[in-house]
Amino acid sequence: MSRYSAAEIEAKWQKAWDEAGIFRAERSRDKPKYYVLEMFPYPSGRIHMGHVRNYTMGDVIARYRLSTGHSVLHPMGWDAFGMPAENAAMASGGHPKDWTYGNIADMRGQMKPLGLSIDWSREFATCDPEYYGQQQALFIDFLEKGLVYRKNAVVNWDPVDMTVLANEQVIDGKGWRSGAEVEKRELTQWFFKISDFSEELLEALDGLENWPAKVRLMQENWIGKSRGIEIPFERTDADDPIICYSTRPDTMRGASFIAISPEHPVSRELAKDKPELAAFIAETRKMDTTEAAMEKAEKKGIDTGITVRHPVWPERELPVWVGNFVLMDYGTGAVFGCPAHDQRDLDFARKYGLEVRNAFYLPGQEKDVETEALVPAKTETVVYIDHFAGVGEATSQEGIDATIDWFEEKGLGTGQVKYRLRDWGLSRQRYWGCPIPVVHCEACGVVPEKKENLPVELPYDEGGTPIDFSIPGNPLDRHPSWRDCKCPSCGAEARRETDTMDTFVDSSWYFARFTAPDADTPTRMEDAEYWMNVDQYIGGIEHAILHLLYSRFFARAMHICGHLPEKAIEPFDALFTQGMVTHEIYQTKDDKGRPVYHLPEDVTDGKLADGTPVEVIPSAKMSKSKKNVVDPVNIIEAFGADTARWFVLSDSPPERDVEWTAAGAEATFKHLARVYRIVSEIAGDTSPANASEDEALAKDMHRAIHDVTGGVESFGFNAAIAKLYGFTNTLAKSGAGAEAKKAAAKVLAQLMSPMTPHLSEELWSVLGGEGLVAQERWPVADEAMLTDDNVTLPIQVNGKRRAEISVPKDMDKAEVEKVALAHEAVARSLDGAQPKKVIVVPGRIVNVVV
RNA sequence: GCCCGCGUGGUGGAAUGGUAGACACAGGAGACUUAAAAUCUCCAGGCCGAAAGGCCGUGCCGGUUCGAGUCCGGCCGCGGGUACCA
After folding, report:
1. DSSP A450
2. HEC profile of A758-781
3. Sequence-ordered list of residues with C-beta below 8 angstroms from that of A603, at least 6 positions apart, any chain
4. Which of A29, A316, A376, A526 has the fewest CB atoms within 10 Å, counting from its CB?
5. Nucleotide B11 C1' to residue A749 CA (A)
């Protein structure tokens, strides 16, 4: 008997699968299809444990479906455009294209030893001109259907580097490289009309039954449907009213000011003659553009000096303020402030000495708001104070509805349904992305490139001179031979659009492209018809909103343009969001108390070489800066892919984070070596049959089939693996005859095969199995073998467990009650008291209530 | 700030509202061995107790229920997202 050599076994079986070509996805008339997809990786250059976990989970599903007789599509590609490639080129010379394709080759090389059941013939990268050319064709189709348009929008502008910054590149309001204070700048940019689909994207969430409820809820909140009202407030100094939007118009009595956005036309107009207002607006332009920064920033405002009339009590004049917290993008860019019923308004009012006036009280608590705003839930009952529509005691929702009705009847306002979801700005002022295929012509305006001229390919150099990425800004802007072109419509001199597309565009339709990666149109209908939808999509929870929402929009838009069948407008039938892989970090503090991280190999017995004690912090997200990255390549070299695969599946439920531990990996290897040993022994066993032992083993085997199958189908991989440990232990100790043991061992090899495919092939062949276990039909549990004649019932007295009885499984309730009450431990704990009630849950529990 | 999660032994975790701690790691005891490694067997939530057994226990406080890790309300801590990181 030889010992378990992962390296040998894994190379051998990967070659066998390759030669048999069993993972090539083929359309089949007589097999059901199954499309399993993991979110494709960004080619950073190294695979990490998170990738191993993600792709192993997908592989378990893909291999399981292969063995249940499906025609499986399990592809892999690269989300290859993006900032890091440009940053690398900026930092160390070189070209984003070379950097990216080099990384792809490296990562493919690191990934292949994992033994994933991927159809590599379908591989593509989003930076392949064949891919982004089709994306440009989609853009032109979207343009034709009115799904894309141009408007102005603000970006982060670095005034020193003269370049647009991503939010990530803005640190504490300053440019990450220049350190200059970042400004907002307005540019004309392209937008997808995703907001036209707000209602549809919201409603369709209900149908996504196999998505996590939390993801659907996050998307629902993101789309943010609200019913409110637009109310014009008459200006005392001018004709045009200021229209405010409110979802809580029932608080109207408490309105004490109105606040408008710094971008509001009225703000701009008034700023012309008011330098201090202009200065305030300029100041707000220095803020981060992120929502988090805006919300957390101190709420500031400035009195414009103008006033408006309260729409219900026109004698009340309300001051108009410009507030840095009012968003121009949402509603009308103007709100009325009701300090008594909104904490932010209250803080604002206290700061600037504005009036605080209640619109309602809580029943029986008639007191005015002082430091804490009274913000009732919509279902909560309040007592309105001289409500104009005569509402007294009512829930807030009733108050809101009555208010909206009253305003509409009087013609003082218009009920409105609004969505928080904004249109998707796709323009990026960067090189390494998909060029937006339009041309700007002085005579014809914005003209789409002709489809026969696609792809509009990124220039690699400029007339043989390499592009210089060390100069900040978009190199396409200073690339005349690419930028200057002829108008596709009139042929006059024109300028190519130099903005490229957001990388979210690339990842919004790749799943569709995988169904026909060689097609000379974005998709090929017959392939899309066969393979769509993705039956199981797997990826990180960090994509719960943007990527998934954009993909849902894209699928709809592609359907409208005839690139996807109607059934594919919700492209992902089932979604699973997996957790991260974490690892402990080794930390000391420098003399200023800042953390310093250390590599594991520099730490011995909790100390550095110089004796400094090191603090060990568990469960930190793996990152280079924290020096806690475990490279899967090292693990595969030391223990083999099967060990890495088994470990990332075994130690935590898939939706939760898993902590990588060296000890855990070693223990996994020992376990796999043990299975190899046990099965090798069984293969040479000749013991005679033993009826009762054979029967007992068979029962355990069917139980294992049942539990492992259930685990694999419901993403209970860790639970499935626990069952496999149990079944291995039973098999090792079983006194059954050789035939029964061999049968059980073959089933063990099959049940393990989605997780440890190489070892399973080896076990299968050692046991004399024919062909590849990867192609073997998945075993089916015999229901009759799963039940026992007797059940063990715990007996509780007042909810505390006191005894246990074993009774026939079909014994009737009265009989069970009798047996339970007769139990000595129950009698002791009753201590002569008469039970008030006895609850018997058949097959579950008995509870005696005293 | 706002939205969404998560919190169970020394550790990772298991548990359709029904015996909390399956399975595994680390640990302890033993077998085998000249010895070590490897392997095998057994023990193991905490406290009290010789044992039988008892009490406590799923982040904290409260509620619903015959029964709550699980459902509801309120806190605390951690994580993800927050529209130009992918």
Report:
1. P
2. HHHHHHHHHCCCCCCHHHCCCCCC
3. A586, A614
4. A29
5. 29
Distance CA A370, CA A346 (A): 9
Spell out the SS3 assignment of A817-840: HHHHHHCHHHHHHHCCCCCCEEEE
Q: What would the two tokens of residue A660 be?
A: 């990588």
Neighbouring residues of A108: CB distance < 8 A, sequence distance ≥ 6: A123
Strand-pairing partners, residue A501, are A427
Which nucleotide shows the minimum CA-to-C1' distance to residue A802? B19
Our measurement of CA A804 to C1' B64, in angstroms, reads: 28
Polymer length in residues for chain A: 850
Is residue A284 within 8 A of residue A324, CB to CB? The reply is yes
CA–CA separation, A600 vs A572, rounded Å? 40
The encoded tokens of residue A254 equal 């408490």
CA–centroid distance for A455 within its chain: 31
CA angle A111, A600, A52 (to 5 degrees): 20
Which residues are CB-contacts of A291 (< 8 A; sequence separation ≥ 6)? none
Task: Tell me, rounded to whole angstroms, the distance of Cα A784 from its chain centroid.
Answer: 42
Q: Tokens for A783?
A: 């229901």
CA separation for the pair A639, A110 (Å, rounded): 15
Residue type at position A777: R
- Specify whether the CB–CB gap between A387 and A399 falls below 8 A: yes
Q: Contact A694/A747 with Cβ under 8 angstroms? A: no
pLDDT in tens, A209-228: 999 999 999 999 999 999 99
C-alpha to C-alpha distance for A326 and A341, rounded to whole angstroms: 17
- Which bases on strand B have an atom closer than 7 Å to a protein beta carbon? 1-6, 11-16, 18-20, 22-26, 38-41, 53-55, 66-68, 79-86
Nearest residue to A796 via CA among A822, A819, A824, A829: A829
Among A674, A784, A800, A694, smallest CA distance to A741 is for A694
How would you list the strands of the sheet with A800-808, edge to edge? A800-808, A790-797, A845-849, A837-841
- The number of beta carbons lying within 10 Å of the beta carbon of residue A380 is 12
Residues of chain A with pLDDT under 70: 1-2, 582-596, 600-601, 603-607, 613-628
Give nearest nucleotide to A294 (CA–C1'): B1
Q: How confident is the model at residue A663, as a pLDDT?
A: 80
| CA A127/CA A507 separation, integer angstroms | 11
Within 10 angstroms of residue A679's Cβ, the number of other Cβ atoms is 26
First to last CA, chain A: 63
Distance A344 CA to B75 C1' (A): 22
Structure tokens at A684: 């040479």
Amino acid A613: pLDDT = 67
ipTM confidence score: 0.94
